[in-house]
Structures are given as C-alpha cells and as structure tokens.
C-alpha cells in the first residue's frame, strides 16, 4: 500500500478512537508535518468521512457523532486479541453498569467472523481456565465514565453528584487529571478548584457527571495512578500503623503494595541492609502479624501498642506448631 494512503487510513483509525485530536498530536503519530495532516483530512472529506474541525486552545479534529464505519475486517491475531480483551476486562471488573455489553460485543464479533476463524476462537475460549476468581466489580455508569474521560482529555471542569461511603450526598466540582482502574474499581483524581485541594472519587459512587464551561491546565508530571494509591494507603481507618523494617522498598512491596502502605527507604552505609519506614492504615490488625512474618525481615513496631501482643501470639502459635509431633 503506498505510504500516503496508509497514513490516511491510520489517521482515520486515530479519529475513530473518539474525542478530539490536536493537529500536533496527529502529526506526531503519523510522523508528518501539520500541513500534511490537514491534507490527509481533506482526503477523508473527499471520501465522505465526516471529519469536524474544532477550534480553540484544545481544538483539532474529530469524527462527527454517529458516524459508522463499514464492517470490520480482522486478522486472526486481531480477532483473538479483541475477544481475549473482552474476557479479561470482564474478569478484572473493568465493566460499566451494562454488564452484558462485553458479552453482546463478543457475540457480534463472533457472528461476523469467518467460520474457520470462529471455530478456532471458540476452541480457545472453551479451553481457557483461570487461576483466580473474577474480581468483584464496582461498576460505574457508562455515561459517567465517558463524560469524565472526555473531560480529562479536553481539560474541562466537571460537576459530580457523589455519594460518600457514609451515605452522605453532595455535588462537587473537580478539575479531573486522570482516570485510574485499581482492584476492580474506577477512580477519578484531580483538584477541587474551590478549596485548591486534591480529591479522588470512586466512579461507581457518582450518580451524574456533566462538563462545565471553561478549561484548566493540568500540572506537569502528575501521576494519577500513584496519587490514587497514596490516597488509598493514607485513608482514615481505626488504626495508624508505623513500622521500621530492615529491607528495601522493593522487598517490602511484595507483601505491602502501594495501595496499602507508604514505604520510604532510608539511606544506608555501603553494603549495609537499609531500613525502611512504613506507614499504613487499617480497620483491623489481626492480618498484619502474618504479613510481617512472611516478609522474613527484622522489624520494629513503633505504633500502635495493640499490634505487639498480636505478633507475640502468632510467634507462640508458630513455636507450638513447630514443636508438635
């Protein structure tokens, strides 16, 4: 296929992904200059593909709403990737409230595939087994997810109707910086412009989301995923636990991941095993002694005092079990 034609088709694929793409972004993805991007857009318009031009600071090009491409033509690898992606997404809990959407989508794709390929994919899906049970999903509304995702991309403020864990309802304004999927839940994180403080919300607790006039500038280098994990690790619970553990942050993370604990590794002398400062919040402490034992690293409990007898009790049980004949 001549290279310019291939790039025009690539441009169409990028626009099909949804949202508005800036000219600079498209030029970078296609490895051409911005003038050539505009020429490729003209080619699509000549083919009656309804490409719209969006003006403004975050303007660019997008496909007109409701535009539908002809039937998909997928290779064996592409069809397998799509169907396995649908299965994996469903088991990971990354669904919207339309639970059947992934199943109906898979059925539609399966129905239009050639019989030879369909039989092979059925064989893969029929023979596939999983070592872990499906994640418990906390599904957001489809319209909420799509509205927030668009606002993140376009840097638009949003208004949210939110229900907190205690049942309290409120309406919030947020400058959304990113969407994060973690442990079967969706989160949006950003800043509340009224008070200038960071906020993170679970999408399944958002009843409605709508964009507001204006735009904002996202901070440089902001990591939405790390921000959500830190927020989860510092959420208010009954106990505040602080420990010193003789080990690297990497070693400790194998049992206390970022969503549970904050680990700060202290500098150490050359060749010496470093000590790390660990902070976490917990509603119960009974699970923690076994986790600390599984690390097989020296540790010091700074607080709370209630953790010490639990660790001693576990040690006594282990000694008694080891001496049993």
Keywords:
325 residues, alpha+beta, five-stranded antiparallel sheet, four-stranded antiparallel sheet
Distance between the termini: 75 Å
Main sheet specs: 5 strands, antiparallel
Instruction: Say how many strands there are.
Output: 11
Radius of gyration: 26 Å
Work out the helix count: 11
**In percent, how much strand structure appears in the residues?**
15-25%
Strand order of the largest sheet: 6-5-4-3-7
Written description of the protein model:
This protein is α+β, with helices and mostly antiparallel strands and 325 residues long. The chain is 40% helix and 23% strand. The protein has helices spanning 3-16, 23-30, 34-46, 76-91, 101-112, 115-127, 142-154, 224-233, 249-253, 288-295, 307-323, and strands at residues 51-54, 60-63, 158-163, 169-182, 185-192, 197-202, 206-211, 239-246, 261-265, 275-282, 299-303. The strands form three sheets. A five-stranded antiparallel β-sheet has the order 6-5-4-3-7. A four-stranded antiparallel β-sheet has the order 9-10-8-11. β1 (51-54) and β2 (60-63) form a beta hairpin. α1 packs across α3 (34-46), α2 (23-30) crosses α3 (34-46) and α4 (76-91) runs antiparallel to α5 (101-112). It is globular. The protein starts with a helix and ends with a helix. The mean pLDDT is 85.
Give a topology summary.
Elements lengths: L2 H14 L6 H8 L3 H13 L4 E4 L5 E4 L12 H16 L9 H12 L2 H13 L14 H13 L3 E6 L5 E14 L2 E8 L4 E6 L3 E6 L12 H10 L5 E8 L2 H5 L7 E5 L9 E8 L5 H8 L3 E5 L3 H17 L2
Antiparallel strand pairs: 1-2, 3-4, 3-7, 4-5, 5-6, 8-10, 8-11, 9-10
Could you write a compact summary of the structure shown?
The protein has 325 residues and is α+β, with helices and mostly antiparallel strands. It is built from eleven helices and eleven strands. The mean pLDDT is 85.
């Amino acid at each position: 296929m001549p290279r310019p034609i291939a790039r025009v088709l690539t441009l169409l694929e990028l626009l099909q992904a949804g949202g508005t793409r800036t000219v600079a972004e498209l030029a970078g993805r296609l490895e051409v200059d911005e003038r050539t991007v505009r020429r490729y857009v003209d080619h699509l318009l000549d083919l009656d593909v309804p490409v719209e031009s969006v003006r403004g600071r975050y303007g660019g090009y997008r496909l007109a709403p409701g535009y539908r491409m002809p039937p998909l033509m997928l290779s064996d690898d592409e069809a397998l990737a799509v169907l396995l992606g649908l299965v994996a997404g469903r088991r990971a809990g990354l669904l919207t409230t339309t639970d059947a959407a992934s199943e109906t989508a898979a059925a539609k794709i399966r129905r239009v595939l050639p019989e030879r390929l369909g039989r092979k994919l059925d064989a893969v899906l029929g023979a596939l087994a999983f070592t872990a049970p499906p994640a418990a999903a906390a599904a957001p509304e489809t319209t909420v997810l799509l509205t927030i995702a668009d606002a993140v991309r376009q840097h638009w403020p949003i208004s949210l109707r939110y229900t907190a864990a205690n049942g309290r309802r409120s309406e919030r304004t947020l400058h959304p910086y990113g969407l994060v999927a973690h442990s079967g839940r969706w989160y949006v994180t950003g800043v509340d412009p009224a008070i200038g403080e960071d906020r993170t919300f679970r999408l399944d607790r958002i009843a409605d989301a709508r964009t507001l006039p204006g735009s904002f500038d996202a901070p440089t280098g902001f990591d939405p995923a790390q921000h959500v994990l830190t927020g989860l690790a510092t959420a208010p619970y009954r106990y505040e636990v602080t420990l010193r553990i003789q080990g690297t942050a990497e070693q400790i993370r194998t049992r206390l991941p970022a969503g549970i604990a904050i680990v700060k590794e202290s500098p150490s002398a050359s060749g010496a095993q470093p000590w790390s400062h660990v902070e976490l919040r917990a509603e119960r402490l009974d699970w923690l002694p076994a986790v600390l034992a599984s690390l097989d690293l020296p540790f010091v409990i700074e607080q709370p005092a209630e953790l010490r007898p639990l660790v001693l009790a576990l040690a006594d049980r282990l000694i008694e079990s080891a001496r049993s004949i």
